[in-house]
């Protein structure tokens, strides 16, 4: 950005501030959400889906699977018993296999199949 253009932008910001356009903005005085947490590759999509309260069905299949993996502990913790946990993991692994084999909308998968026994052990530990 050139010096003249930067001065023009700065002048517009100062004028808007003088008009009070920056007062009472949503989130004013609050910490930035996620500050101090590492950014994921698709941080912008996560932020928009959270802001717009989009459900998983609105996401492309690859991103839907990524969101399911992100929420997996909470999803499994809501299940009543080990059989239900194993069934949910097998169903998730089936969807991941299909995504790995065939073309899928969205970015490439950054994860593979979930290790069922490891996930079940983690579920047991969280319940203890």
The helix content, as a percent range, equals: 55-70%
Chain-averaged pLDDT: 85
% residues in beta strands: under 5%
The main sheet comes to: none
Our count of helices gives 6
Number of strands: 0
> How large, in whole angstroms, is the Cα Rg?
22 Å
Which overall shape is indicated by the principal axes computed on the Cα atoms?
A: elongated
Low-confidence stretches: none
Succession of helices and strands: HHHHHH
Which class of secondary structure composition applies to the elements? mainly alpha
Query: In angstroms, what separates the terminal alpha carbons?
Result: 57 Å
Protein name: DUF1992 domain-containing protein
Characterise this structure:
57% of the residues lie in helices and 0% in strands. It has 128 residues and is mainly α. Helix 3 runs antiparallel to helix 5 (82-101) and helix 5 (82-101) packs antiparallel against helix 6 (116-127). The longest helix is centred in the last third of the chain and has 20 residues, at 82-101.
Based on the model shown, name its key terms:
about 130 residues; mainly alpha; DnaJ_homolog_subfam-C_membr-28; DUF1992 domain-containing protein; single chain
